[in-house]
Amino acid sequence: MQKHSIFGLLILCLMIVGCERDYIWDPNNIDEGAAERPFNTLESGTKWRLLRDTGNRTPSPEEGYWVHYKGWRLDDDGTEVMFDQSYGLGVGSYFGAGQTVAGFYEGMQNCPEGGMIELEIPSEQGYGDAESELIPANSTLHFRIELIRIE
Q1: Domain that holds residue 101
Q2: Cα torsion at 148, 92, 51, 58 (round to 10°)?
Q3: How crowded is the C-beta side of 85, counted as CA atoms within 13 Å?
Q4: Is 3 domain-assigned?
Q5: Stated pTM of the model
Q6: What is 1-30 written as a DSSP string?
């Protein structure tokens, strides 16, 4: 009996500690009015806008970062088709400097730590004429990205 009580107490402690966190990452937790902000356009054609501005520092080109994200493209009829996301995994994804498509990498340099950015990446800055099961050739990519931590 005592063995089961100790085991139960251990499980309860792990649940409490494991569930504690400072912030719950959520792709819908944006600044008021952020969805109406205009996009900024980089020289490459990648468009970005901040959806959550924390005022913290942004990553330099040499730094990697941990993010939560969702990526989608628009179907011929304008329907969003999600092709990738990290939210369902419950853990963020790490990207080292230059380890993503050019538009993602370039756009993230405008996102403050703890903030959120939305990117619209033209095919030339994405996968170009390469084709995959979920992303047709010459697709414009869309991302909503939360920058968890810069490393």
Answers
A1: 25-150
A2: 40
A3: 14
A4: no
A5: 0.82
A6: -HHHHHHHHHHHHHHHHHH--S----TT--
